[in-house]
Design brief:
This protein is an alpha+beta fold and 158 residues long. 26% of the residues lie in helices and 33% in strands. Strand 2 and strand 3 (48-51) form a beta hairpin.
Length: 158
């Protein structure tokens, strides 16, 4: 069971001890993809989807940043990190897929990939929430880590 970083020697849940690690600049990027049906796509004008609740993409950006800042409160055993930066980009690169990219960075002793993943996930959920009155055929297709740097194992998905 020692392969799992969040278990102690007896197999019980434990926060990872990072007290001996060095502070380094860490960054991570995560991506979420939301598939929307034609009737929702038809509401896309001037770079956003307009609803009675407001501009969907703008609201998703704010929600994603707010969520990334609270990752340590949402994920058990996740270290609370202050973010030096968090950016969310929402684009519609194909006819029915919305691509959300969240990049977070900080100087810390532990990684920031969970903050990027939470930011992208909550932005996707916000799009679902704001568009569900138009259709329940919205699919959050995937959320995945694209890149992380600054730790002992840098990673980049091609």
């Amino acid at each position: 069971m020692t392969d799992f970083s969040h278990l102690d020697k007896t197999g019980n849940p434990a926060m990872v001890d990072v007290s001996d690690k060095k502070m380094t600049l860490r960054a991570a990027t995560a991506r979420a993809v939301v598939v929307i049906p034609e009737n929702v796509l038809a509401r896309f004008t001037n770079g956003d989807i307009q609803t009675k609740k407001g501009a969907v993409f703008q609201t998703a950006v704010i929600a994603g940043i707010m969520a990334a800042k609270k990752t340590g409160e949402l994920i058990p055993l996740c270290h609370p990190l202050g973010l030096d930066n968090c950016e969310i980009h929402v684009e519609l690169p194909s006819n029915n897929e919305i691509m959300i990219t969240c990049t977070a960075s900080t100087e810390a002793k532990t990684g920031i990939e969970m903050e990027a993943l939470v930011g992208a996930s909550v932005a996707a959920l916000t799009i679902y929430d704001m568009c569900k009155s138009f259709s329940h055929d919205i699919i959050i297709k995937e959320t995945k880590l694209m890149m992380k740097t600054g730790g002992k194992n840098d990673f980049e998905r091609k």
